[in-house]
Task: inverse folding
């Protein structure tokens, strides 16, 4: 099992450009999450999904969009990149039901907006 | 409001010294608490969770509901323990499994 795979690992964007961060998992997990990690701020939840076709906003959703057409994939879209979106983005998935259970993380995608 | 606070950004100790990484939380119900660790150039991974009451790599953490704390402890630090440690909380009636993370503490174990 590859677990949770994120691409790209690194990307530099210009202000106003758009891009999609890809996330796929091969564990048949229903729950998937996107977090951003900023120095001294910990991880903040951007969006999450409890199953295919279902998504919801997290703590910091502005400037982002997601979709969940399949169980495996949970892409994160940045429509108009801004310097404030410079961060490291982590995708995670979880099996089972409810609040219990371990989150499995991808390796992260480091995005710089100039 | 749900919140997790890790008051120390950096904790530096010598090898063999005891370690305590502090974590306090704010939550009105019965939370589930976790510690996640991120070693250099590795992905974030679960270290331990309070419901398991287990010791992983010599680390333990006890949930103290009276003090709303979940401090991570190890009696004798090793150099390979150097990493970023995050305390996280899961709760709420929505059962979405989403975690609220603290700000993280970098543990530096010096030789």
Result:
């Amino acid at each position: 099992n590859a677990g949770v795979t994120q691409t790209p690992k690194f990307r530099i964007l210009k202000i106003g450009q758009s891009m999609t961060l890809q996330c796929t998992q091969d564990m048949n997990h229903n729950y998937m999450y996107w977090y951003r990690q900023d120095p001294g701020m910990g991880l903040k939840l951007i969006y999450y999904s409890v199953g295919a076709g279902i998504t919801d906003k997290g703590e910091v959703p502005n400037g982002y969009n997601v979709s969940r057409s399949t169980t495996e994939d949970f892409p994160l879209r940045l429509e108009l990149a801004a310097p404030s979106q410079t961060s490291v983005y982590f995708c995670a998935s979880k099996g089972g039901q409810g609040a219990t259970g371990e989150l499995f993380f991808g390796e992260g995608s480091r995005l710089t907006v100039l | 409001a749900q919140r997790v606070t890790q008051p120390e950004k950096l904790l530096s100790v010598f090898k063999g010294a005891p370690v305590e990484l502090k974590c306090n939380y704010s939550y009105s119900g019965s939370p589930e608490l976790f510690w996640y660790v991120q070693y250099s150039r590795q992905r974030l991974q679960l270290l331990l969770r309070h419901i398991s009451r287990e010791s992983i790599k010599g680390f333990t953490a006890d949930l103290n509901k009276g003090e709303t704390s979940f401090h991570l402890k190890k009696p004798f630090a090793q150099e390979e323990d150097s990493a970023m440690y995050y305390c996280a909380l899961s709760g709420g009636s929505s059962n979405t499994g989403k975690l609220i993370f603290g700000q993280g503490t970098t543990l530096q174990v010096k030789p």
The longest strand of chain A covers residues 42-51. Chain A has no helices and eleven strands.
